TrEMBL record:
Transmembrane segments: none
Keywords: ATP-binding, Nucleotide-binding, Nucleotidyltransferase, Transferase
Matching PANTHER family: DIADENYLATE CYCLASE (PTHR34185:SF1)
EC number, as in UniProt: 2.7.7.85
Keyword Transferase (UniProt): yes
Protein name: DNA integrity scanning protein DisA
InterPro entries linked: DAC_DacZ, DacZ_P, DisA, DNA_integrity_DisA_N_sf, DNA_integrity_scan_DisA_N
Pfam families to which the protein is assigned, alphabetical: DAC, DacZ_P
Catalysed transformations (reactions): 2 ATP = 3',3'-c-di-AMP + 2 diphosphate
Enzyme class: transferase
UniProt KW ATP-binding keyword: yes
Highest rank taxon of the organism: Bacteria
Amino acid sequence: MATQRLTKHNAAMVQAAVALAKKRSADALLLLLDGSLDWKRIAEMADGIEKPVIVAVDAADDLEGASEAGLKPLALNKEKAPMLERLQHALLEAAADEFIRTNGEVVAVYSGFQQGRLDSISHLQLDERMRRLTTRDLQMIESRVPLQTLKAVVDLAAQIGREGREGKPVGTLFVVGDTRKVLEHSNDSGVDPFRGYNKNYRNLLDAKVQDDAKEIAQLDGAFVVGSDGVIERSRQMLEVSHEDLTMTKGLGARHWAAAAVTRKTKAISVVVSQSTGTVRLYQDGNLVMRIEPMDKAVTWQEFNFEPPSKKSSDEKS
Ligand SMILES: Nc1ncnc2c1ncn2[C@@H]1O[C@H](COP(=O)(O)OP(=O)(O)OP(=O)(O)O)[C@@H](O)[C@H]1O
């Protein structure tokens, strides 16, 4: 478990962020932390803020007691990521959990320069285009696959679409549910790296397994995933006829196969397009949801510590 100390300095920063959030009537206050804190104290300090006070840390364990204190807990699982990425991720997750509106204003306090020391406060105006599918959207297609599994797979797919792998775009396909039937329509396209592993090492609800899946997503073929989130097979080529389907122009074999398999089975397909990063969900052969990659809509600027050079400011004036 990691803890973050509520030093005099950190407390003063939280107070300043609370004051700013109140003054600007922000839609939420976000505390991006390196570990657990005295949540009751934080709630007391934020007293008077009518809007959500979100506390985000990397590990879910460190958020124990936060809900009870009246705060909105957010586990990030982004320990090694650079600060701006963690902040962006926290905002996206907060929007997905409906703690904030996707076009709201948020005051965020975080350690931008030194771990454990809250040194930065940002007042962020979120972009309306920062659209993230919400649990409510997913509930509409929950019918056959439990929401928890669907959410984990869609989150992972959106992440793959957004980030790719090592700077390269990655496309992939997850076919979720009705595995027995799905496997009747699929063949190995190569050695399946998950084969032979215990179920616990194949469950996509687990962050480590998600990382493994991101690696394997670079290889050809689809993941066949059970309703419980367990990867039953990876690297599968689907063989299904798709004569009776209609498909958006420009989509290729991966998307046709994804849609077709949901016509023949009760599974839901979650496809990431390599060329655009867009995630599409198919059910009964139809497109039921499309999620655009968000990092193309939300642009984050790096901090710039250098004052503009004399020359460039002259040019502007
Ligand atoms: N029947 C299939 N089952 C599983 N995977 C497939 C199937 N057909 C194609 N793929 C995978 O999709 C990859 C890309 O194929 P293609 O470019 O035709 O698809 P696409 O639908 O245009 O997707 P993208 O937008 O990602 O390019 C292939 O290299 C292969 O890994």
